[in-house]
Write a structure and sequence with these properties.
- The chain is globular, with a radius of gyration of 21 Å.
- By secondary structure, it is an alpha/beta fold.
- It folds into two domains: about 240 residues, 3-Layer(aba) Sandwich (Aspartate Aminotransferase, domain 2); about 120 residues, Aspartate Aminotransferase, domain 1 (Alpha-Beta Complex), CATH 3.90.1150.
- Helix content is about 40%, strand content about 15%.
Length: about 375
């Protein structure tokens, strides 16, 4: 039985009518640029994230770029982040003229280590960017505690709807950061039918500037306070996301159920270490990522059986050729390098059947002789 890493067609089949209805409303209104659907989605995401403001933009990458611009980060500045994440996290730091400064990850969660990030602070540090990798929130409060005067840009591209218990209260992804950034790339738990992103913040002034920056730096048409970008969330994408948003919690809950199945079924398999979710966290499992001995051989074995897997991420950012100018070498961040050599993400999408889950586990067990 084939088991794809992700099956977007299965999800679309279940919600097609509601998605098409929302998109046709936009077509009938002919309001394609920052139309009412964008405002409705912004209000809904702000409510979900418990943020005062949510501002749509063209992609998760642009959400980071706009956040750095709104914080006046540029040439000569440094921004601390993790080397074990998608390229955009550090690429946008570079693209605003700042210097990415890397700190290593916690081996259990794959998230940026707050203590190591704090140790990397210099007089040039202008922000820290923890990433909620694979759907589990970083220890967001520890960054603020250790670096109280440094803005926190939470890269929540993989964690919309995730939560963390902080000082007795549930805090949502993006809620406690200076600016939280979201992605609606199709593979996310809340994915569009194309690109899209959003920024959330509690700060009125930052929200105003983010809205201005996404439309060429002007709050009014043809009047420009600064040079901004053309980074508007497409109204048709907003319509798709509005149709999908009511299903988000159910989809994330199904992913958690699948994760529990994997945890139990793989618990006794020597050579496999299942993901660690901190007791204070509720992950949305954008990915279910194991550590595996002989990872590449296991992936090849599963591929032969028709089981989809993927390595997120095979080469840490500090070893990417484009960042050679930063001067990092192999061994600079051993936990990130070890993770890159061991991680393998398994199918976790909500529509997985019990038979597909069993097939995946059987494939792993057969490789390790169990």
């Amino acid at each position: 039985m084939p088991v794809p890493l992700l099956d977007l067609k299965a999800q679309h089949a279940a919600i097609k009518d509601s998605v098409v209805a929302e998109m046709l409303r936009v077509v009938d209104d002919q309001a394609f640029i920052l139309g009412p659907a964008v405002e409705r989605l912004e209000r809904a995401v702000a409510q979900l994230s418990r943020a005062k403001h949510a501002i749509g933009c063209a992609s998760g990458t642009d959400a980071l770029l706009l956040a750095f611009r709104a914080l006046d980060i540029g040439r000569g500045d440094e921004v601390i982040t993790t080397p074990f994440t998608f390229f955009a996290t550090a690429g946008t730091i570079h693209n605003v003229g700042a210097t990415p400064v890397f700190a290593d990850i916690e081996p259990e969660t794959f998230n940026l280590d707050p203590a190591l990030a704090a140790a990397a602070v210099t007089a040039k540090t202008r922000a820290v960017v923890p990433v909620d990798l694979f759907g589990q929130m970083a220890e967001i409060e520890r960054f603020s505690e250790r670096m109280p005067d440094i803005p926190v840009v939470e890269d929540a591209a993989q964690s919309i709807g995730a939560r963390r218990r902080i000082r007795g209260r549930d805090v949502m992804a993006g809620e406690a950061a200076t600016i939280g950034t979201l992605s609606f790339f199709p593979t996310k738990n809340l994915g569009g039918y194309g690109d899209g992103g959003m920024m959330v913040t509690q700060d009125d002034a930052l929200a105003m500037r983010l809205r201005r920056l996404r439309i060429h730096g002007g709050a009014r048409e043809y009047f420009h306070d600064e040079v901004g970008y053309n980074s508007r969330l497409d109204t048709l994408q907003a319509a798709v996301l509005l149709a999908k948003l009511p299903h988000l919690e159910g989809w994330s809950s199904a992913r958690r159920e699948h994760a529990r199945y994997y945890d139990e079924a793989l618990a006794g398999v020597a050579g496999v270490r299942t993901p660690v979710v901190r007791a204070e966290n509720e992950s949305i499992f954008n990915q279910y990522t194991i550590r595996a001995d002989r990872r590449d051989d296991l992936a090849a074995h599963l591929k032969k059986k028709g089981i989809g897997t993927k390595v997120y991420y095979p080469l840490p950012l500090h070893l990417q050729p484009c960042f050679a100018y930063l001067g990092y070498k192999a061994g600079s961040f051993p936990e990130s390098e070890r993770a890159a050599a061991e991680v393998l993400s398994l199918p976790i999408f909500p529509e997985l059947t019990p038979a597909q889950l069993e097939e995946t586990v059987s494939g792993i067990r057969s490789f390790y002789g169990r």
